[in-house]
């Protein structure tokens, strides 16, 4: 176990209820998400890194799998065993159609405590592409600590966040309202290192979504190893 114990995650249970509105928003968004974000070069490149660094057949958790595109399908096609989770039942349904070779569950990250889908050290790799930004900052270190513990020693994680000095901030998003958090990049590096990860690679991309109500953003991709 890392310094962040499973016993500290009661706050995540509370936030799972608070995030019900987030799930409803993404249920309503559905396939609009792929229309608004048609180009995902950074995410694809990060998936290539993770896939190439792990042996074939590795068990990978896709935390916040969304529609299953591109990541779950990409990792399945590379020969890995993918387990995807998402709080939105609509997204899970789309993911099952888009990446039939993966296993998907409607779960919150908080639901992974106590051995759900496997206990500590049960995954060789994890992806968390833009999923942790849906949490208030106070809960992100807890989530990172949980994901750290789910990795085997030396396991790898690919993390993506949008750069920004914001905390639980409401924004319009594809016709719905969601709440998002972000870090400036030095602060994000500190948070992941404090959670027990070594940073082994980093990329950033300027991204302009196709949707007019989603502002341009800087996407930060960190490649991490469980220390």
Automatic annotation (TrEMBL):
<dbReference type="InterPro" id="IPR050508">
    <property type="entry name" value="Methyltransf_Superfamily"/>
</dbReference>
<dbReference type="GO" id="GO:0008168">
    <property type="term" value="F:methyltransferase activity"/>
</dbReference>
<keyword id="KW-0808">Transferase</keyword>
<feature type="domain" description="Methyltransferase">
    <location>
        <begin position="60"/>
        <end position="155"/>
    </location>
</feature>
<dbReference type="GO" id="GO:0032259">
    <property type="term" value="P:methylation"/>
</dbReference>
<keyword id="KW-0489">Methyltransferase</keyword>
<dbReference type="InterPro" id="IPR041698">
    <property type="entry name" value="Methyltransf_25"/>
</dbReference>
<dbReference type="Pfam" id="PF13649">
    <property type="entry name" value="Methyltransf_25"/>
</dbReference>
<dbReference type="InterPro" id="IPR029063">
    <property type="entry name" value="SAM-dependent_MTases_sf"/>
</dbReference>
<protein>
    <submittedName>
        <fullName>Class I SAM-dependent methyltransferase</fullName>
    </submittedName>
</protein>
């Amino acid at each position: 176990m890392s310094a962040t114990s499973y016993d500290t995650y009661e706050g995540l249970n509370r936030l799972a209820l608070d995030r019900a509105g987030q799930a409803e928003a993404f249920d309503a968004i559905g396939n609009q998400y792929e229309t608004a974000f048609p180009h995902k070069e950074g995410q694809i490149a990060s998936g290539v890194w993770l896939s190439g660094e792990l042996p074939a057949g590795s068990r990978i958790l896709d935390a916040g799998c969304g529609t299953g595109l591109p990541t779950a399908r990409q990792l399945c096609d590379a020969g890995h065993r993918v387990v995807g989770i998402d709080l939105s039942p609509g997204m899970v349904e789309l993911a099952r159609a888009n990446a039939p070779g993966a296993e998907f569950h409607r779960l919150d990250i908080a639901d992974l405590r106590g051995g759900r889908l496997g206990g500590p050290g049960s995954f060789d790799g994890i992806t968390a592409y833009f999923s942790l930004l849906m949490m208030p900052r106070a809960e992100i270190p807890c989530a990172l600590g949980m994901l750290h513990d789910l990795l085997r020693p030396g396991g790898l994680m690919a993390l993506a966040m949008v750069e920004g000095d914001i905390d639980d901030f409401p924004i319009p998003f594809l016709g719905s309202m969601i709440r998002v958090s972000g870090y400036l990049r030095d602060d994000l590096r500190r948070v992941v290192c404090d959670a027990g990860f070594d940073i082994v690679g980093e990329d950033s991309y300027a991204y302009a979504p196709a949707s007019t109500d989603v502002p341009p953003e800087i996407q930060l991709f960190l490649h991490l190893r469980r220390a």
